[in-house]
Write the structure tokens for this entry.
Amino acid sequence: MAWMDKHNLTMLNEFILMGITDLPEFQAPLFGLFLIVYMVSAVGNLGLIFLTKIDSRLQTPMYFFLRHLALTDLGYSTAVGPKMLANLAVNQYTISYNWCATQLTFFGIFITCEIYVLSAMAYDRYVAICNPLLYTVIMSQRLCHLLVAVPYLYSVFLSLLVNIKIFTSSFCGYNVIRHFYCDILPLILLLCSDTHDIKLIVLIFSAFNLVSSLLIVLVSYILILVAILRMNSSKGRHKAFSTCGSHLTVIVIFYGTLFFMYVRPKSSHLFDTDKMASLFYTLVIPMLNPLIYSLRNKEVKNALTRTWSMCANILLKIHCNIH
């Protein structure tokens, strides 16, 4: 037993990641592609956070939740993206023990929080369409902050619980993670100690997160659909659909990817297929969300135009003062 403890300590200074591909000729193109995807994602989400914070016309509950959606997108894509890009650039697929724990912690916090932020956005759209006269009363600043604060606190608790259980357990000598980042299930496969409790915690909380959040979304949109069908005006129906369009698109993409990843028969789980799906929801979805909300939302486009004009005027004044 003493030999096992010593062996664990010497072997677990770092983990080896399988990476995205083991073909050298694909590494440079993939690095270029994912660098562009991550940069577009980071700039887009930072832009949304900045825009919804400073523009006076975007100070509504809808854009408050959108700001936190952008923050969670930025959070979990940054937990994975830079390290993945660094590994591709130097062709060295290793990650230190501490950085692996840190990556898993922050990824867990932001991905769990995103699920509940999307649910809060669905509830917000329900109130806006089904109770428009009471919208500002129901969606008070206090409730909005509560709907965001509780998921953040819950996500931190859950992520720390799982991480502490994993990283206080005994690892075997084999330290190769069958993934391009530190994820829960590939790490559990490396444990030598009994994994029953960890698997049970992950299963219970994953099912709870998925079912509870999806239930809120489904109930909200069923009530929204009923309310829209009862509208007499076609203009009113079109306006109601347009206010939900961006959020509904994001919901379908996000939950569709999660279901593809986790609600499939075990026999159909192929390593390369799972990697592609993971790449999609860790890097592509955070890039798509700001694009969807920017391209489909007139208020965001108008705010972007106003902010761009304001910045251009400030730069012009600075230039004139210098010369």
